[in-house]
Amino acid sequence: MNIRTKGMGLLMAGGLILSGCAGLDDTSQRTLTGAAGGAAVGGILGSFSGDTALGAVLGAGVGGVGGYLYDQSQQPRYDPRRPPPRRDYRRRY
Q1: From residue 90, how far is each of 4, 24, 85, 87, 93 by CA, in Å?
Q2: Average per-residue pLDDT in the chain?
Q3: Does this model's pTM top 0.70?
């Protein structure tokens, strides 16, 4: 098996994995996107030191946590001192 065949196989596997993410909520999508990006960058950086798998695993962990924290920072803030918005259920013509 040559490098080109392995590369195409990894590319196709990655595409299939990411295609299953269509029905996820925003938090899950951002966490998974962070983990995938972190794994890619970690794998590249790990290849320089000679341990690609360890770099990818560590990158996926850091990227997943980063994606989750980013999602939480984008959520609307709840302030208990502020009353909820008033809803007017009367019809307006």
Answers
A1: 66, 36, 15, 9, 10
A2: 81
A3: no
